[in-house]
Amino acid sequence: MTTTAMTRAQAFWRGYLDCAPFILIVVPYSMLFGVVARDAGLDVLQTMSMSVLVIAGASQFTALALLQDQAPVFIALLAALAVNLRMAMYSAALVPHVGHARLGTRVLMSYLMVDQAFAVAVKTYEEQPGMSPAAKVAYYFGCMVLICPFWYGCTLLGALLGRAIPESYALDFAVPVCFIALTAPLLRSLPHVFAALISSLAAIAFAWLPWSLGLIVAALIAMTAGAQAELWLRRRQESRS
């Protein structure tokens, strides 16, 4: 079967299966959020409301951590927004592939967007340029249909079980493992690697800032460094031609 002949149903189920390995990370990651949210003082309804409305684990953890540190609500919201700005970059990267979809479909896709689905979808779109526009949309929804129910359900499970989960289970391993698994395959060029290195060093250098503001500073520095590295490479190539 070639990618040009792929039907919507085939593309949907392929996306479903391609995202399946991430369930091993999503389950403990979402359960951990449920546990942490209850420990932070949220009830089950508040925990689920945050998970369903935001559906962005990194920003949810960031907001909770800052609120636990007695940071002002404005700072918590600003930090969560800064963490979630990556979604704007994700959207821009997806426009050439699924930007043709109807407005209502794109709104639903933007709500459902998570790191795992984006990483898998973009990688597939680049490797399979013969996919039809309709197949690309179906593939994306196939990725999301698998991830989102597990995120909602396991968040609820973590919120209900709470402290009944033994600390020896160490669910917090899922956070770094998830982002390593997502980021590593996307480091395909020198500017990407340079930006990742700079962000790591900057996060350590500015760790002393209150309310985790060092992460925001590190993100801004890394984006600037990556852009400058890409500009330098482009000028170097132009000078050689």
Automatic annotation (TrEMBL):
Q: What are the alphabetically sorted keywords of the record?
A: Cell membrane, Membrane, Transmembrane, Transmembrane helix, Transport
Gene Ontology CC: plasma membrane
Q: How does the record classify its membrane topology?
A: Multi-pass membrane protein
Main location class: membrane
Where in or outside the cell?
Cell membrane
Q: Does the keyword Transmembrane apply?
A: yes
GO annotation terms (biological process): L-valine transmembrane transport
TM regions (residue ranges): 20-37, 49-67, 73-95, 137-162, 169-187, 193-226
Query: Cross-referenced InterPro entries, in alphabetical order?
Result: Brnchd-chn_aa_trnsp_permease
UniProt entry tagged with the keyword Transmembrane: yes
Q: Which family does it belong to?
A: Belongs to the AzlC family.
Know the name of this protein? AzlC family ABC transporter permease
Which organism encodes this protein?
A: Marimonas arenosa
Which lineage do the record's taxonomy fields give for this organism? Bacteria, Pseudomonadati, Pseudomonadota, Alphaproteobacteria, Rhodobacterales
